Amino acid sequence: MYTFLLVFCSFSALAQEQKPDTEAVSRVFYILSNTGPGAKMATLPLFENVVKASQNDVSASILLPGNITPSHGFPKAEQKRQETKEFLRKNLLEPLDNFNGNIIFTPGINEWAPGSPQSLDDLESFLQDNSNGKFLPNDGCPVEDIEINDEIALIIVDSQWYLQDWDHSSDYNVECDIRTKERFFTEVKDALKDNFEKVKIVAVHHPVLTASTPGAFNRIFPFFRQDFQNPLYREFRKSLETLASQFDDVIFVSGNDANLQYLHNGRNPQIISATAAATTPAKTTGDALFTSEEPGYAKLTVFKNGSSRIDFFSVKPSGEELLFSKKIPQERNTKIELEGAAWKNLGDTYSASIYTSEETQKSSFYRFLWGDRYRNVYNTKIEVPVLLLDTIYGGLTPIKEGGGQQSRSIRFINENDHEYTLRALRKSASRYIQADLAPTTFIGDRVDNTYPHRLVLDYFTTSHPYAKFALDNFAEALDLPHIKPQIYYVPRQPALEIHNDEYGNELYELQAHAGSENKSFAQFEKPQDILSSFDLLEELREDPQARVDENEYLKARLFDMLIGDWDRHQDNWRWAEYEDETGKIYTPIPRDRDQAFSKYDGPLIRLIKLAEPRLRKMQTYDEDIDSIKWFNWSGYPLDLQILYQTNWKKWEEQVRLIQNAITDEEIKNAFAELPVEAQDQTIEEIKHNLKGRRENLMRIARDYYEHIQEFKIITGTDEDEAFEIIRKSNGETEIIQKSEGEEIFRHTYTSGETEDIWIYGMAGDDSFTTSGTGDDLINIKVLGGPGKDTFNFQNKKKIKLYDFKSSKNDILQPGSRKLLVDSYKINNFNYKKFKYSIFKAVPYVNFESDAGFTLGAKTIWTKYGLVNNPFQARHELLANYYFASNGFAVSYNGEFAHLFYNWNFGLTARYTSPNYEMNYFGSGSETFYDKDEVDRDYNRLKIQKWHFSPALIWRNDTGSVFDVRTILESYKVEYEASSYLGEILAPKNDIFDQQFYAGAEANYRFYSKNTRAFPSMGSDLRLTTGYKKSLDEAKNEFGYVKPSVSFNYPISANGYMVFATKLGGQVNFGEDYEIYHAATIGGNHSLRGYRNHRFNGKEAFYHSTDVRSALGVWENKFIPFVYGVTAGFDYGRVWIPGEDSQQWHSNYGGSVWISAGLAVTGNIGLYHGGDGNRLSVMLNFKY
């Protein structure tokens, strides 16, 4: 289903402008960037004019989004640092002394110069000690949000943090809670969500939109991280843009580009103000409404009604001039005035359903494929109380919109500052598609009422909408904290305020928010505080005495398995904080148990699980669990952090406690609490399965206990700690952790249960000691982390240390196994990184006009561990059957991480039966072919082949891959008298003998295209060079070079008309090679009007060019399709020794294409060349 649904793209309409209230200014923001590299004579006038203008403002701020220092940053060397300090005083701080408002500096490229992040921290201290300004974000973190006032929030994003190579220092993110890029985007989204009613100004050095026109080389070949089209930069800006597009009133302000720009993509305004230094050209086209290279600044005025105005000023010796002014309308909704008082007259109760009967009505074939699920429950009306928000709990006022990847909710607050969450029982299919399937493309409402939208809505019926409301009784019986949700019908009403357009007139659950503001509630057992899982992990990292109540967490997790709740990721937990004489202790508060008692019937979902491992955790609730590993997949990372010193006795005790508490009578009473209309046969089935699972719980628990015991992670804190590893007999290993001499952890592991243990010292100066001899040892990996660490491995068997090469560590025992590399991902702790493997199988189907239909299957087994690049090992096995020749092929591709650091070991192997492999029409550029005289088989060669090639592979995160490999292979051409080759060569010719070759090859590829389905920008550069020599009597020996380059560039403002071109070829060195090693052209990858391998020679060249244009969007209830046409022209030729030919070959033609959301494209073309017409059928574009 994931593959089927990932097919969307959206385009937003420009918001309608509103006239701003110029008399009610909330705040003025002056924006300048690139002041550090700027010459004094260029920068100072800008500051003078801004300072002067600010004197007339009641409330003002100046934003300097990056590059406030010279290009060398804030140097470590004292002399250069003093020079930089003096430069900053004279050219930055003193000119801004009299600015009438707040001064906010943010980092850019220059501030992350060598010496960072320490120099960045030093710069922060210098600026804040010598001015009234703030340098944000703090401590080298990537994001910080500031409440400016009731109307405005400022979200500061350090884009260079994201683009930086983190492997240059062990200090990255040591002082910061955000240590992964995934967490970074979560924090940005939370900041946007927390300020949903405000204008949100996102200050980010690198723009997400730009009209800058740097040199063509940088646009087409973005090798560097700072290039706008570089894959890493694209990932950053597209993800950020997509997040921002999901919220109203988000304005980006940036620097970096050395010009003045205002852009609007229909959803997000982008302001760029960076002309203090040398300028870069920009073109007013497409999203760009204004560009200028004149020295100047931007002024953003935000009004109290939520609208804004952007003004750009140039600063010249003759004075200041207004270059451009534009109103930015308010996008968010205002309070909706409801007509009449129908919401007051509904009575005390109301009957409603989650879905309509039309939405759940499916054909018998559909039900056969997808099962019956709980559709009948979703269209059943239930009678529930009517909720009036202005009366319950003393009256509720909305404060923020919430919800996760599929839920829709609003947070409310009452007069006592207690908060409550109103959560719709009808989930959002659009949110699910956006979050899970299109994280870098804003889809908006483009998929509403389409087939994928309906498919996702139907997918939601796999969870029972009301069964979870029986869980409170069970939680009370088990003494587990719980949320206590209540079902209501919520009409649209004034108390919903701006949310009346998207919320109301449906069923909701209302519950107390599990947060610190409600810590006095008895249902949460009145803790001292309530934390998120992220905050809990930070507390455990910072405080050696902090701990989780393992027994309470274990009880909650076993209860998850009892009720079939597989969705226990970290955000579905909150943590109650208590404190005693030993330190802080945390107990779990489970929440959002939507997936309890799920039902995934129907065969199709089982087939999809083979190809999509993420779906395997979704298991139908019955008396047993199909796969304990996959069922607990979401909860496993958190389990590893908490259940690392448990034993089976504790598990057994909790199982018996649950079995004794959840009696048949308790089950009966709990489900009797559900709405009467929902107490149907499905509830009887759930109760029956619950009783059966209760009886099986001991075995289920044992299965998971054995699974989780196989691999353990032990984490220290950021304080200095000592770890003692004591090897004992009978496969036992005792591990002791001490902080300041006090023992805080001791546990013994046995090799019969545990195979691997990872021990993280975290930050701080830690020591690791092994002693004892023992036998049958557990594999242990020790990671020192940032700081100076000491390793004393008296027993060096089955233990290996990992640490930063640049750290000054002490390794006391010679011969200790180690990997010392400056790798952020290897040496730093990430709780979502653990040891696991994934197997999946996918079908392979292909059609090619020469080769016909191919049908096969691919299996992929991927293993992840401590040292990944990007995996620890991957094995791919592909088996194909070729219908045109009744042949088959089997291939293997394996890769193993870090044979040498950053160099993977690769291994490929392939075997083909004597089936069609290539065409041969003769050698040279003037070979004859008449398709009306011979059939297609006449020019086909059937080749039996095997190939074996080990390799070293290097790749980076900016689009480059390089490998060097050795090759051993064999070819045997099958003799067929009726074929072209059989007619010109005798059966005893060497080519019909099996020939063996050895050789070596080097390959480089740089890929930066923005999408494979319809690439509108980017390049694909490839270079292969190699040498092969025969190992038999044929004595063939030759070298070869195969270069190719393609690039795509938009020639229309909206990017829907694209120029695409590709050049490629091959040169063989030496005369001794067979025709299957020759340089060839022809087919979909070169001359599309000719058959594959139509021309065969010693050298070959081709050039293909397309103009592709999207003509429109076909809106329908199935999938929105983009459709278009292509006009193409190809030319090329081959050369052979002794042929005096000037013959070039060309073809022209075009194609029609249709793309499902520009994610996958079907392409049918007709091309005419010297041999006549050729039909081309392709998936996506070949360049």
UniProtKB/TrEMBL annotation:
Pfam families, alphabetized: ShlB
Segment forming the signal sequence: 1-15
Keyword annotations of the record: Signal
Highest taxon of source: Bacteria
InterPro entries from the UniProt entry: Hemolysn_activator_HlyB_C (IPR005565), Metallo-depent_PP-like (IPR029052)
Gene3D superfamilies linked: 3.60.21.10
Domain Haemolysin activator HlyB C-terminal: 1030-1151
Name of the molecule in the record: Metallophosphatase
